[in-house]
Specification:
Helix content is about 60%, strand content about 10%. The chain is α+β, with helices and mostly antiparallel strands.
Length: about 200
């Protein structure tokens, strides 16, 4: 199994976390950006974009599709089809409602005044409201979002905080959500990965 992306967390980090936590062996191929044009033309990737997960000749693209596949493979997708749907709902919400908005106001908006306004709104309005909604969906009993079993929604939450904490810090949300972040960070496989992963090419 081979996961191809750039040497950056970006849209592949959740997939990496799922595979690592699931104990699934894979090649973490990190393309140097200057080589991307050549790799893109020669690798035969669908749609000529990354991330791509290769399994026995099958090439999967689109980060969400790969993450769902990896979560099922790792046993982190939920125990029932209802739990699978809830996991997918939470992960898509984290990506669409917070991570994408973070990227919009951090990297894509070029006007300085508009960027400052967007960042202020993101930090003071968007993030607290979103985290409040997540907290309301948190199961009453259990250490994780869906109860006592870790799912890829918990890994996605951990990843989301790691993305936005540059602006907000990681000490955000309710005590339960802070505890969730700390529990995921303390998972031995996740902690080891964080200590040993290569520095991002773009940081």
């Amino acid at each position: 199994m081979k996961l191809s992306y750039f040497n950056d967390p970006g849209r592949a980090e959740l997939i990496r976390l799922i595979l690592i936590q699931g104990g699934i062996q894979f090649e973490d191929f990190r393309c140097v950006f200057k080589d991307w044009s050549k790799v893109k033309e020669e690798a035969g990737f669908p749609f000529k974009q990354v991330p791509v997960l290769e399994i026995d000749g099958l090439k999967l693209c689109q980060s969400r599709a790969i993450a769902r596949y990896a979560a099922r493979l790792a046993g982190l997708a939920g125990k029932t089809i209802e739990e699978e749907a809830i996991c997918d709902m939470l992960v898509v919400a984290m990506e669409d409602d917070l991570i994408e908005k973070y990227w919009d106001c951090t990297f894509f908006e070029k006007d300085p005044e508009k960027k400052a306004e967007l960042q202020k709104s993101f930090k003071q309005v968007k993030v607290p409201k979103f985290l409040d909604n997540i907290d309301k969906l948190y199961q009453k009993n259990g250490d994780y979002l869906l109860g006592n079993s870790l799912t890829y929604a918990d890994l996605a939450y951990y990843r989301m905080i790691n993305v936005i904490k540059v602006m907000t810090g990681e000490d955000i949300g309710s005590d339960r959500l802070k505890g969730l972040y700390q529990r995921v960070a303390a998972l031995p496989r996740i902690a080891h990965y964080e200590k040993t992963k290569p520095a991002s090419e773009f940081s």
